[in-house]
Design goal:
With 435 residues, this protein is an alpha/beta fold. Helix content is 43%, strand content 11%. It is built from 13 helices and eleven strands. The strands form three sheets. Strands 5-4-3-6-9-8-10 form a seven-stranded mixed β-sheet, sandwiched between helices. Strands 1-2 form a two-stranded antiparallel sheet. Helix 5 links the parallel strand 4 (144-150) and strand 5. Helix 4 packs parallel to helix 5, helix 8 (245-258) packs across helix 12 (350-375) and helix 12 runs antiparallel to helix 13. The longest helix is centred in the N-terminal third of the chain and has 32 residues, at 65-96. The protein is globular. 45% of the residues are buried.
């Protein structure tokens, strides 16, 4: 069970990341999960109701337009109920298997590079300064270097790095690191990061980063690095505080059950060995589900097991989130998902399935409900079906909005404290590496 302190005992040989349910078994868990668990029941009953012959217009004297309206309404309602049933069942299962990791102290001596990407003219240098100032205050019991990856080799950025004692890197003027496409695509964050890895990656074990305009918390690495004592941990991600944080929390906590949380959120730490094996960052940013998916497809050459990931409840950075959880690299994730569909255990695909179907299912469900409502304009007798369609669409949303925030509030009371570890926690404090 997660606690508000780190496990200070050195792990035994063969350590693996341990997890506990974020909710206690018993009444609290029942109250949090039951709305989602029972929500598919009315959708299933409605499906059975729709196929009864008594609800068909065929054969009645007032056929014609009503027959068409009735058929459209029934088909739309049937598909709507089927989508609602499938989505709610998947969501209920994800809520039931949600897990939180048990924190562990970092292994001393690991080499970490904190990377902050900068494009002159695209983001203010003041925001970069705030990120770098937060990065140099992070604590880690081993070598820690802070790097600014300057896309344009800006003189002011160089001066800022000299002032803060931060390393400066630029790929400007290197043709092989500025291509039109691929891992070193010019003008893209992933191209900038991959160029740095090609140049300096051998000198470090892990890379850490946060979203643009975010300030990393001093305890970011202290709370994340311990999970890498497990040799199969490829990356660790923190929670989102964006508008879809409830859905994000559901996906990531369920992912912990199978070791496959999605590479998304305001901050992350990635093992360079696993990243290189997957071909580097897949783009366009540092935290993309498609990059994490590619890592999860590969195996650790030292153990022969699939690479795993960890979602920690500890917030890594503060700032304004960059956008929705869905992959911003178009259909790249969907294509990779299709090739791995029958080659990867279903549990390892759970998080990615939720990410891929979340918005399409919602959009199609609403479209079918609207289509059913429009059929009511053809004939008044179709209006009951239209009302039923709205109920089908709104009921799952109401159940989800009630259950997920409640589960998150209950889990928050049992998760590790989301605050930077204080300097008085001398058992964790270690020499921060210079930059």
């Amino acid at each position: 069970m997660p606690s508000d302190r780190l496990d200070h005992e050195p792990p035994a040989a063969g350590y693996r990341v341990r997890h506990g349910a974020p909710l206690r078994t018993g009444w609290r868990r029942i109250r949090a999960v039951s709305p989602l668990a029972f929500a598919p029941v009315p959708a299933g009953l409605l499906l059975l109701l729709l196929v009864l012959p008594a609800h068909r217009t065929a054969g009645r004297e007032d056929g014609g337009a009503l027959l068409v309206a009735d058929s459209v309404a029934l088909v739309s309602l049937g598909l709507t109920a089927l989508l609602a049933l499938s989505w709610l069942a998947l969501t209920a299962y994800a809520a039931a298997v949600a897990r939180d990791p048990v924190p562990m102290t970092p292994e001393p001596g690991t080499r970490v590079a904190f990377l902050a990407a900068y494009v002159p003219g695209r983001e203010p240098l003041s925001a970069v300064r705030a990120t770098l100032e937060g990065a140099v205050r992070m604590r880690h019991p081993g070598p820690l270097d802070v790097w600014l990856l300057d896309e344009g080799d800006d003189p002011e950025a160089r001066m800022l790095c000299a002032e803060l004692g931060v390393h400066h890197f630029t790929r400007l003027g290197v043709p092989e690191w500025n291509t039109q496409d691929g891992p070193h695509r010019a003008g893209r964050e992933h191209g900038n990061l991959n160029a740095w890895i090609a140049k300096h990656g051998d000198a470090y074990d892990f890379t850490a980063s946060v979203d643009t305009a975010h300030i990393p918390l001093p305890g970011f690495l202290e709370r994340a690095m311990g999970y890498f004592r497990d040799p199969d941990t490829a990356f660790v991600v923190g929670p989102s505080v964006r508008g879809d944080q409830d859905f994000h929390a559901l996906v990531q906590h369920a992912g912990n059950r199978y070791g496959t949380p999605v590479l998304a959120g305001p901050g992350s730490v990635v093992r360079i060995t696993a990243l290189r094996q997957a071909g580097g960052f897949q783009g366009p940013a540092a935290r993309e589900p498609v990059t994490g998916f590619e890592i999860h497809r590969h195996r650790n050459p030292l153990t022969g097991r699939h690479w795993r990931s960890v979602h920690t409840p500890d917030v890594p950075a503060v700032g304004q989130d960059a956008g929705p959880l869905e992959d911003r690299s178009g259909g790249a994730l969907l294509r990779r998902y299709g090739t791995a569909l029958f080659r990867v255990p279903p549990g390892r695909l759970l998080s990615y399935t939720l990410v891929l179907v979340h918005r399409p299912v919602a959009a199609v469900t609403w479209l079918l409900a609207v289509l059913s409502c429009l059929s009511a304009a053809v004939h008044p007798a179709a209006r009951p079906w239209a009302v039923t369609a709205l109920v089908i669409v709104l009921a799952p949303a109401a159940a989800r909005s009630f259950a997920l925030p409640r589960a998150r509030r209950v889990a928050k009371g049992r998760a590790p404290v989301v605050r930077p570890v204080q300097d008085t926690d001398h058992a964790l404090a270690g020499p921060a590496g210079g930059s």
